[in-house]
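Summary for the steering committee. The consortium agreed at its last meeting that each partner would contribute one worked example illustrating the joint modelling workflow. Our contribution is presented below. We chose a case with several input lines so that the handling of multiple components could be demonstrated. No manual editing was applied between input and output; the record is shown as generated.
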Amino acid sequence: MKAENMRRIVLSLAFLVGLTPPAGHAGDDTSQPMDSYFLETLPVVLSASRLAQPVSESPAAMTVIDRDLIEASGAITLPDVLRLVPGFQVSLISGANLTAQYHGLANQHPKRMQVLIDGRSVYHSAFGGVHWDTLPITLDDVDRIEVLRGSNASAYGSNAFMGVVNIITRHPAHDRGHHVSLLDGYQGTRMAGWRFGDHIGRLDYRISLSEFKTDGFPNYRGTHTWWDSTGGPVPPISVTTGTRLKPKHTLYTLARQDSQTILRMNLRGDYRMENGDNLLLELGYAHNDRENTLADGNYELMRPNEKLRAGSQLIKWSHEAAEGSMTSLQFSHNRLDFDTRHTAIAIQRNAGILINAGPVLGGQRFHNDRYDLELEHHFDLGGWRTALGAGLRLDSLNGENFAVDNRDLQRQQYRVFGNTEKHFGKQDQWVVNAGLMLEHQQRLGSFASPRLSLSLHLNDYNTLRLATSRAYRMPSLYEQFGASRVDLLDPSSIDPALTKPLTYQIYSDRGTRIRPERLDSIELGLVSADWIDGLSFDARLFYERLDKYIDEVLHRGVCNGCDSVSTTVPGFANHDLWAHENAGWLKIKGIELQARHHISDRTLLNLSSSLTRTKGRRIKKRNADGSINTTMRINDYVPHITLSGLISHRFDHDWTGSLAYYYMGMMNWPNDGDRLHPYDRVDLRLAKHFRLHGNKAQVELIAQNLGNQSYQEFRYDNKFERRVYLRLRIDAE
Amino acid sequence: MHTHPRQAGGIRWAPTGVTLWCLGLLLGLLPALPVLAARPAVLLYQPAHTPSLDRISQSLIRHLAGHCRQAASCPRVRIVERPPAPDAARRAALLIGLGEKAADTLARNAPATPQLHLLISRHAHQTHSRLPGVSALYMQQPLRRQLRFLRFLFPEYHRLGVLLGPASRHRRRALARAADELGLSLHSIQVDEQRAIGPSLRRLAGRSDILLALPDPLIYNRATLATVLLTSYHEQLPVFGFSAGMVRAGAVAALYSSADELGTEAADMAWRMLHSDIPAATAPRRFERAVNRPVAHALHLRLPTDAELAQWEPTE
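What follows is the complete predicted structure of the assembly.
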């Protein structure tokens, strides 16, 4: 697989080089006589997509995290900065895996949100959502992140169900020279990154490489009782980090296995064509080797080796005409090679007592591709600023233990969309914006996602916005077709007298026709900019209703004959299994506030908060005959309160510092996660800027959770303690 | 009667129909020759065919024709793509060159013939082709006009930033004087190589409110434009450009003269020169005001309305 990936990268590179003009062109631009560029047509550099849209003009609530805020936050990973966005939850699933989602409902796969890198969707269709740890870029490559809070399916498609994270990378023309970044700190976390930008003739390019390593969470500490493979308890022992374990302990993951190594490569080329058109090329590759042991009170699975490989290619042509009309055509391909197939020891405990253990074969191995073709045209239609577009998408997946009979999956989607905006009123104080996305998904049917917003500019500083929308989320391939199991390798190791079988985690589509989730929302927003000098403020009152909520439901004793163990081991005749279905509904209402105040040239204050009330219910278990056994309230799938505050200050030319505060209320992380207590934490960053052999350099000290009041993220056993990092960055221009 | 055979051979030339016809035509044209010779010949040297150069030439010819309709005698304008032969250049009543290269060639080949140079910088004209009988229409707008427009657009801006390259550093003094008159403080950085553009812009951004782009092929060309505009945008430093193309690309505003305007003014000057009146080299009187509202918007700048822009006149 490795060789195949490398071959793909080499081919893609060759493709890029093939488009590169001969080096002889390099000097042409400067040797042109001065008169020639007085009159010539020049390519549009600051195009609409490159310019930050003022927040007051946006038809949806938007948070912009620019370079200054990224720097000030002291974030190490990209999702970390999303903690500054109201309503966002960012969490480590294990030391080697993290998730970020808007308005909760997040398991390992934040599937209700669209993530874009320079307009390319990085949504993986297998489980849905983005694998943050396989993004080909790091925070250093990012120019700014625009987060659209709330549904925006009419503009970005069904993946933009609850929000959009639009990552805009730095333009290569702005990034000439070498940039080196080195980080060292907590639990063997190390990062080394190199970026280089230059141009060959009309092609501006940037290449970046980075490696990130971490040992994850520290090993368990404190006094624990362990069990050996026969079920007999091992006397309690007191352990601290680095405790050497005797063989009898090794059955249980006393040492946390959640390290990871990520290698990232990214190449971006912006080619200005003779006629002023732009060609954007992006190649990305991420290579993630990680351990991902999952354990909870009753079930534990050691998955020491997972391999994730993500490759992506984007080619986008855009043509901008003088009258503000723009046409673009883009083709992109995302590939995810996912390999968590493993043999491991599964341990089953009940109330802390080990009841069963045995070697199992679980996990999945597959290749997942998404091909996307999109045409878009922006133009002015009698005063209506209009965008029309059409797209074609193909998802495919083949592999082991993902679908019934390991069959190959394919799914097509067609879409057409339009958005139009007009200012009216005496002083153009009213703005109406309407959008519609029509999608046809194979096997699921056609869906229309409309959005309508009306803004009123109260005065030069304040804007009021009322918006309503409907959006659909297409189920992921796993939700639609998933069927996988954990196989017991040695059935004789199982005590048939036990009532609870070991191999019960089987997902299947159960033949139920799964329907897309539907979200209806209405919001009232107030955006204020510079009413008080340097202060921007945004408040959003919202109500969202999610219907046909998809989740896993436990079907009791229905799996007769669907598992080999059941037929060979007495007592395993009737299995439980898990199946995805439209299991419930959810209503979320609340208010989000954000404020950014440039108190002075040197001091910046950023505040955000979200207060929500959630009501929801879903089916938890069904009986063998399909009747509902248990339902559960899911009011706590969205945290009631989240808060963040960041203050950053430049002391003088050399020193800057920032202090961040984060609070998250009680939340129940669905599926693999736990119901966790509220937490707060304080982060500190101190940076010294200096010159190193004439190059700009800075050294930063970053401390996360400064107070060292350990708290839990996603699961009980993820204890987040104080983490200290040292980072050095050098820019050689 | 006897006939000498050789003589007979000598006069055996028998005129054919075609030659007779040609001869007749030549004879018929003879009376017209003095008239043709009397029409002053204008040689327009346009070294390259680009849409904008073609537009200037066409506008010039059209407006020159407009002048002669009133005066009833029309100069003959011939567009040449190669440098005219020295003889032809000497014989011409007026030579017009488009661009600095053309100006240079004409000034060298026919220093004695009246010449009008278009699309030339003031500096190039004054250093290379300042000859009696040579006039020029500069391509740049006068500094004061530009600065007045800049002050009109952004009255709150007082710190003017400039990058000076090899072709523009001579303007520093004039710029400082003009800036001083208009109450602007000037911050300039010398740039000698392309790689220094980004860092210089970042340095400049800390000290200035707006960047005034002065034409200089090292700093502002197709290859560097993206760097200049993206870096300055990133540093929230608006760029005041010098052409319509720059504004379209991402500069916040510019004053410029269109190809038609340049052609019209050149025709006026050429007409005077054909009547032995050599006007002083000058900047174009006609100009356009261009602004890029989306960019201004993104930089949180407020611009005057289109009507206010159209009404603005520099008090020169």
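The interface with chain B takes residues 29-46, 48, 50-54, 57, 67, 143, 171, 173-174, 176-177, 199, 201-202, 204, 270, 272, 322, 324, 529-530, 733 of chain A (CB under 8 Å). Residues 347 and 357 of chain A are 4 Å apart (CA to CA).
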